[in-house]
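Good morning,

Attaching, inline, the backbone tokens for the sequence recovery test we're adding to the shared suite. The designed sequence is right after.
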């Protein structure tokens, strides 16, 4: 699947899995990290489903879900930072990736809506 947003989401998911391992193994944090794992990996999964959509409405729905999962991942990242589980440097790096992904997904949604008008 060759798509800039898919590739970025896939790499983001790898970072999320690694962050989850770190949070569980080193910080002994199991609840918030599980939420981050779920939302952070769901972004790419929904993009993959969108790429197989049978209609533009289905495509938009899946991209919309990916966008919302990205917003949720940003929430969990912020909460983990503000409760001391992530240091500022680690947070800034991964949060920046989430921010770029959310902007890309929003632009895809906007363009897709305009095409259907």
């Amino acid at each position: 699947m060759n798509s800039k947003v898919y590739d970025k989401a896939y790499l983001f998911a790898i970072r999320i899995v690694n962050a989850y391992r770190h949070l569980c193994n080193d910080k002994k944090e199991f609840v918030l990290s599980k939420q981050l794992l779920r939302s952070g990996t769901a972004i790419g999964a929904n993009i993959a489903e969108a790429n197989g959509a049978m209609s533009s409405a289905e495509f938009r729905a899946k991209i919309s879900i990916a966008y919302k999962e990205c917003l949720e991942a940003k929430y969990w990242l912020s909460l983990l930072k503000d409760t001391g589980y992530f240091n500022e440097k680690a947070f800034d790096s991964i949060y920046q990736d989430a921010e770029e992904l959310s902007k890309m997904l929003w632009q895809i949604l906007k363009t897709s809506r305009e095409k259907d008008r």
